[in-house]
Amino acid sequence: MSGNRQVSAAGGYRDLEDKARKVRQDVIRLLLRQGKGYVGGALSAVDILTALYFRVLHVDPERPNDPERDRFVLSKGHAAVALYATLAERGFFSLEDLLARSPGSIPSFPEMRAVPGIDMSTGIPGQGLAVAVGMALGAKRRKSGVRVFALLGDGELQDGAVWEAALAAGHLRLNNLVAIVDRNRLQHGGDTEEVVALEPIIAKWESFRWSVIPVDGHSFEELIPALENVGYAQKPTLILARTVKGKGISFMENENRWHAEVLTREDALRALEELGVNVREIPLEL
Predict the structure, then answer these.
(1) Rounded to whole angstroms, how far apart are CA atoms 50 and 137?
(2) What is the pLDDT of residues 176-186, one digit of tens each?
(3) CATH number of the domain located at residue range(s) 14-281 in this protein
(4) Are 153 and 48 in contact (CB under 8 A)?
(5) pLDDT digit string (tens) for 35-53?
(6) What are the Transketolase N-terminal domain coordinates in residue numbering (predicted)?
(7) Could you tell me if 56 and 229 are in contact, meaning their C-beta atoms sit under 8 angstroms apart?
């Protein structure tokens, strides 16, 4: 199986920064084609997904169903377009094939049978971590080296199923499991701390027997070492990634109306221009 340990020729993480910029461009293209979707939470998750698929996960686009591949579950299913764009950039399929679908036919939430490279169909808040716990437990019982990663939204932590799964994972000492919380502090309805307060998040997860690593969710220097920490502690790992909703596009950052705002062509062109695209060369249909 191919690894993701390539080193940037320029040193550091410039290669990943370029990948993340391209993924953000493709998120905008997909959402415009889709005619609906969740742009803010997709953009906040891009750097996490880029770090996973280009440096951390043991996956091979040529062998997408390899039983010994690492697993990834997008529990915050509304960020599906960010996962699609990342998978396309990683080589699981051509983004143009997805864009060629009829408007509205691109799944708003991850669907295993609709898009290559998806390990689990999700959409119901709280569902993904429970599935990831089952995957990690199964790998343990098979004595497999498979690692399981799950990305959750912070608003999702208000769902009781998350805490049931977290309690089970801590009890079972699933050190092959990593949960990542996209902590952008905004959800449908407002600030998470005003809807249903989540803090103190770190203390809560530690009380459930998890190792907790807080990081800047847009810093590859912090994300990658934390993600590669899996297995060292004899317990599951939670990465609390501080992020910005709408990251990368100035008029969307920390603006909760972009949780599910439909993109107009003008919005998309403005966003793409900020992301370094020469919009004068873009065809009318993007």
Answers:
(1) 26
(2) 999 999 999 99
(3) 3.40.50.970
(4) no
(5) 888 999 999 999 999 999 9
(6) 31-278
(7) no
